[in-house]
Fold these 3 entries.
Entry 1:
Amino acid sequence: MAAPGENMKINGDRLWESLMDMAKIGPGIAGGNNRQTLTDEDGVGRHLFQDWCVAAGCTMGVDQMGNMFARREGTDPDALPVYVGSHLDTQPTGGKYDGVLGVLAGLEIIRSLNDLGIKTKHPIVVTNWTNEEGTRYAPAMLASGVFAGMHTQEWAYAIEDSDGKKFGDELKRIGWQGDEVVGARKMHAFFELHIEQGPILEAEGKQIGVVTHGQGLSWTQVTVTGKDSHTGSTPMPMRKNAGLGMARMLELVDQIAWSHKPDAVGAAGHIDVFPNSRNVIPGKVVFTVDFRSPILATIKDMENTFRNEASRIAGAMGLDVAFEKVGGFDPVTFDETCVTAVRNAAERLGLSHRDLISGAGHDACWINRTTPTAMVMCPCVDGLSHNEAEDISQEWATRLEK
Ligand code: GLV
Ligand code: MN
Ligand code: MN
């Protein structure tokens, strides 16, 4: 058999066509996608993926969290499968590639092996993890977290979306609650391909990101309570303006992240204002603070500083404030053997590469706790992601194209 890079090549046109076909399901309003987890669109996307996998000769397993596992048999009955994959769910204003590339690239590996008549010793399993994004149901990477034993299934099933619909009920409703016990599968290794979602590879003209670490994350949901009252007739000294309290706390989030530069970031992407009426002083706001860093102590420090200072702001304004940790994981070090395998493969194939720390969370971050895991990244235009304009080139996505 020829060496990798000589004749073991994927069909880049086919991968690209599948990416574009998947993107037709749950189109966004600006050229991207809105295929949020456990929506009807998620269900349709899953069926399409399943049909493709079955056509490629795989058997599909689905676990009780809706995680999908498409298996191509190996030649050694004792060899544990090598897993590859990512997620098919998207942000409400998401791109076509975040997650989807990793799943469909896994499928393309299987299709290419079929074309080339190659049997592998280990089975290969392509995975679609449920609810990576965490928009509709916090936290992110929910089902890979249950798989890795970080959350219980009962807890996950009881999480509600903003309409009060429970995760477990919605999973059943779209028809993707499987029978398999979650986390029962044993893996030889797990690899996740993902777009970088940051600017480094493109800026440095590198083709491959070898992901050595992932930064950790902390999500704190904050509820500030004041009093709804008339914007015109309530005298300034009598106001209990929860919206203003939040504004001061958001400034604080930014200051805290800057004060830990260059190894920290912070923002609040989720904000709900009640009653959200032009002439009512907001009596309640709920928002989620997202702090991240590759250094665990920095995350803890940012969390604590925020809680202390936000409580002080609320106290000075006569507001109540409550904090709830709704998501988080510690910084991740990926498996050295798997990382080295990725780096060596890039080297052998003559692809330019550099080591990266992932800024985003990924299912690989949880699976790494149970299985030797690594990630591969490709560049994306302007480092833009979680935006419908997220873009990659076919060339970037398909380095081993024929
Ligand atoms: C997941 O996409 C995250 O990084 O929040
Ligand atoms: Mn992703
Ligand atoms: Mn994402």
Note: The first helix runs from residue 12 to 23.
Entry 2:
Amino acid sequence: MDHLKVAIGSDHGGFNYKQKIIDYLKCRNIEFVDVGTYTMEACDYPDIARNVAELVVSGQVDRGILVCGTGIGMSITANKTRGIRAALCGDTYSARVSRAHNNANILCLGERVIGEHLALDIVDVWLKTGFEGGRHKRRVDIIE
Ligand code: RB5
């Protein structure tokens, strides 16, 4: 996890959690790129989602984290980019299995849906969990 490089982004609806997650990444010396938004002013989540998705598929970062009000708009948009497997997670089990089975490369969270401490636990387990491969690789290959 120490060697991971992460891109993180949010719209105004996810801005507060983005800042909390950045604090978490800094505490653990995880390298990150903050693609914005940088204020609470309303902005368009698809622009942020696309920027994070492009950083992931181009290999400039290993994984991405996207936060909006629900996480839904971010996940819909991120999954339009070929090669992105964005998982909207509201619990730690889904977060773990999205990595172990689906090899999710973007985590989406909803600031207006889940509490801050749960969101940070989800980030923690999602970043720590590796892809199991094997039969799950065959299924991910079918997606791709
Ligand atoms: C912004 O009001 C809200 O629509 C956005 O953060 C997100 O929930 C979209 O899916």
Note: Residues 5-143 form a domain with the Ribose 5-phosphate Isomerase B; Chain: A, fold (CATH 3.40.1400.10).
Entry 3:
Amino acid sequence: MMFTVAIDGPAAAGKGTISKAVAAHFGFDHLDTGLLYRAVGARVLDGADATEAALALSPEDLEASNLRSAEVAQMASQVAVISEVRAALVTFQREFARRPGGAVLDGRDIGTVICPAADLKFFVTARPEIRARRRYDELREKGEETSLDTVLADVKARDDRDMNRADAPLKPATDAVLIDTSDLSIEDAVDKVARLIRDQLPPSV
Ligand code: DC
């Protein structure tokens, strides 16, 4: 059975948590496509050329321990503007989407560019202040010294760059289901997405 779920949205809206939870629930494979751009960003911070790093990316690069830092996130958003970088990552993502047991991909352009024919598409969002608070709590938990104002400015800068780039900008696919997690618990958001997936699955699954 092939079944592809596309989950897009801005930073810290909850799409990663929702994707992981529904993938585990249905036994689908999950790809956090942001990690691809973060891995390229991390290589660039080490002095590599962005396009060369994207072309040479290997699965082990996605395991690097620093990929979740705020510095890498900003660089990921910057390398994501480069069309050659995006092009280098397309095949891997599309092949992942066709995995026989079902696949959930989360990112910015999955429903619009990578998998326009996905079986189900979601656009997960939340107000910037709420997303900044979540990201701030996450970073603090990992021991990163920062302030809420800095994180909010980072989130807004990333939103702005991701939404306004020429190639594959962040925007909801016209057929995406919108999920606003500003006033929704993560459990309720997961339930809502899982129910919609269940409704679309062939009866035998
Ligand atoms: O989802 P994330 O925060 O890990 O993504 C980091 C950056 O990577 C994001 O700011 C923009 C870029 N990105 C992208 O351009 N397209 C994707 N499908 C996923 C991420």
Note: The chain has a mean pLDDT of 96.
